[in-house]
UniProtKB/TrEMBL annotation:
Organism: Drosophila lebanonensis (Fruit fly)
Residues spanning the membrane: none
Family: Belongs to the small GTPase superfamily. Rab family.
Name this protein carries in UniProt: Ras-related protein Rab-30
GO molecular function, one term: metal ion binding
Primary role: The small GTPases Rab are key regulators of intracellular membrane trafficking, from the formation of transport vesicles to their fusion with membranes. Rabs cycle between an inactive GDP-bound form and an active GTP-bound form that is able to recruit to membranes different sets of downstream effectors directly responsible for vesicle formation, movement, tethering and fusion. RAB30 is required for maintaining the structural integrity of the Golgi apparatus, possibly by mediating interactions with cytoplasmic scaffolding proteins.
Compartments where located: Cytoplasmic vesicle, Autophagosome membrane; Golgi apparatus, cis-Golgi network; Golgi apparatus, trans-Golgi network membrane; Lysosome
GO cellular component: autophagosome membrane; cytoplasmic vesicle; Golgi apparatus; lysosome
Gene that this sequence comes from: LOC115625931
Cofactor(s) needed by this chain: Mg(2+)
Length: 234
């Protein structure tokens, strides 16, 4: 029988081609897929990690960036504990679209959802969005901020582990039951979860960055990697 303390749902959104699927693959499978095709609808993958001594199951939803799938992907926002909004640091239009994505999030996600802005593809040398610009945007919108490279595995583990750690903190501060799907609830996954975040934590407000959340010793946590392709578009 599976044994875990919390199940957290993490949803990745952002323009087509920013690297959402590659980030998920890098984290769950430890690889950078060659010739990654566009996501159709929504996929999800599961990884069990150990954070702060707790076994945590992460259900990671990878949504299609293409406009034509928007009505499908929107329906996955509501049950997310964390939303990762991804842009490509070498592609200005993906950054310019962020306000549109935030409007979507505001409309469809839980108001207390943990939001993380991620600038991906830091390995590229044709950067168009300086780190400070991304950081400032995140600060303005009360989001965490991190730059990553799915290709070079930079900050990818850190991204997901720190989200897990933050969600654990939130869950614990809310009595351990309302901010997460607990093991007891896992059989009845209703999709509507009462997130209990009081606000973005002071840590987030101060740093607007995943740094400072005090992780980093779990890089080698053994994870159960499972894959379940649930493409729903077409
Ligand atoms: N250089 C570089 N390329 C990347 C990185 N991450 C993804 N890519 C490339 O960017 C392209 C798109 O990656 P995907 O992961 O499919 O992008 P996506 O955001 O999932 O796209 P949709 O499924 O259409 O929404 C692919 O050619 C990847 O190889 C990265 O960190 N560095």
């Amino acid at each position: 029988m599976e044994d875990y303390k919390f199940l957290f749902k993490i949803v990745l959104v952002g323009n087509a081609g920013v690297g959402k699927t590659c980030l998920v693959r890098r984290f769950t499978q430890g690889l950078f897929p060659p010739g990654q095709g566009a996501t159709i609808g929504v996929d999800f993958m599961i990884k069990t990690v150990e954070v702060e001594g707790e076994k945590i199951k992460l259900q990671i939803w990878d949504t299609a960036g293409q406009e034509r799938f928007r009505s499908i992907t929107q329906s996955y926002y509501r049950s997310a504990h964390a939303l990762i909004l991804v842009y490509d640091i070498s592609c200005q239009p993906t950054f310019d679209c962020l306000p549109d994505w935030l409007r979507e999030i505001q409309e469809y996600a839980n108001i207390k959802v943990l939001k993380i802005l991620v600038g991906n593809k830091t390995d590229r040398h044709d950067r168009e969005i300086p780190t400070e610009v991304g950081h400032y945007f995140a600060k303005q919108h009360e989001m965490y901020f991190l730059e990553t490279s799915a290709k070079e595995a930079e900050n990818v583990e850190r991204l997901f582990y720190e989200i897990a750690a933050e969600l654990i903190d939130q869950a614990r501060s809310k009595d351990g039951s309302s901010a997460a799907t607990t093991a007891a609830q896992r059989q009845t996954d209703s999709g509507s979860i009462g997130l209990g975040f009081s606000s973005l934590s002071a840590k987030a407000a101060q740093s607007n960055c995943c740094s400072g959340l005090g992780l980093g010793n779990n890089d080698n946590a053994s994870g159960t990697v499972g894959s379940n392709n649930t493409s729903q578009g077409g």
